[in-house]
Amino acid sequence: MEVIVAKKCGFCPGVTNAISIAEKLLADKGNIYSLGPIIHNPDVVESFANKGLKTVNSIDEIEEGSTVLIRSHGAAPAQIEQLKAKGAKIVDATCVLVKRLQQKAIDLEKEGYEVVVIGDKNHPEVRGVVGCVKNVAVIASKDDLCNLPKDKKLGIVCQTTKGPELFGEVVGEIARGGFKELKVINTLCKETVHRQESAVELCKNVDIMFVLGGLQSANTHRLVELCKKHNNQTFHLQNWKEFDKSILFGKAVAGVTAGASTPQWVINEFVENLKAFKG
């Protein structure tokens, strides 16, 4: 079978950095904690767990004086203070673009704006940003616009892994509403945007499209959504183990892309097996 891989896919610089930091810490200290999954990919999380990385969702689960990795999604200031109070050695692997997003939100609030974050309220990156400011509204879609404060100065930022289409659409709707002043800061990740553009370009020219990535990965879900708009034969799989050969019936050319938290070995394994597949 002919297989074409998207020009841009797989680990982004922020994820690569977090992985590198975790590997060095484990080699040096043996056992460390991660506040939440290091990245949204079960294969990687399992691999690191076997090396001694303990993933916790609550600071209460962390022992006093332990080494704690702040993942690429970042953490809220209150969480950092809680860790310091426990005497934790904090190693910060927050993506530089997430740090920028947090700082922009803080700056907007200092300038007198009501902060508006376009993103998913339960995403760890967004939760971290919300924890940086006092008054904030999270808008996941146009349906949430009713939560916006009226007749206020609004400062808008966006979850880094969202796409320009959603960002522009929501900002456009906000601009039609009642506000005193509007300040919009583009906090989108260019790596994410390039991956989305590359995936869309590819899916238009193949019989079937595979998007590889964790089921909890927001940027992978977005790749799936975009590809399905242009190719209804788009499938989201975590790895080759989930592959169902029946979906290849009548297909000659397959496209493959992957989320920013999908390791290269998962991509390589999938592509090689797909190339070797004989229906």
Note down, in words, how this protein is organized.
The protein has 279 residues and is α/β, with parallel strands linked by helices. It has three domains: 2-10 and 191-276, Cobalt-precorrin-4 Transmethylase, domain 1 (3-Layer(aba) Sandwich); 13-95, Rossmann fold; 97-189, Cobalt-precorrin-4 Transmethylase, domain 1, CATH 3.40.1010. Helices cover 39% and strands 19% of the residues. α2 links the parallel β2 (32-35) and β3 (53-56). α4 (96-110) packs parallel to α5 and α7 packs parallel to α8 (218-230). The mean pLDDT is 94.
Fill in the keyword field for this structure.
279 residues, single chain, alpha/beta, 9 helices, Cobalt-precorrin-4 Transmethylase, domain 1, four-stranded parallel β-sheet, 12 strands, 3 domains, flat, 19% strand, Rossmann fold
Number of helical regions: 9
The appropriate CATH architecture of the largest domain is 3-Layer(aba) Sandwich
Q: Name the structural class.
A: alpha/beta
CATH topology title of the largest domain: Cobalt-precorrin-4 Transmethylase, domain 1
Can you write the helix and strand succession as a string?
A: EHEHEEHEHEHEEHEHEHEEH
Taking strands numbered 1, 2, ... along the chain, how are they ordered across the largest sheet? 1-12-10-11
CATH-assigned homologous superfamily of the largest domain: 4-hydroxy-3-methylbut-2-enyl diphosphate reductase, catalytic domain
CATH class of the largest domain: Alpha Beta
Low-confidence stretches: none
* Radius of gyration over C-alpha positions, nearest whole angstrom: 20 Å
- Taken as a percent bin, the fraction of beta residues is 15-25%
Q: What's the count of strands?
A: 12
Helix percent reads 25-40%
Please give the domain count.
3
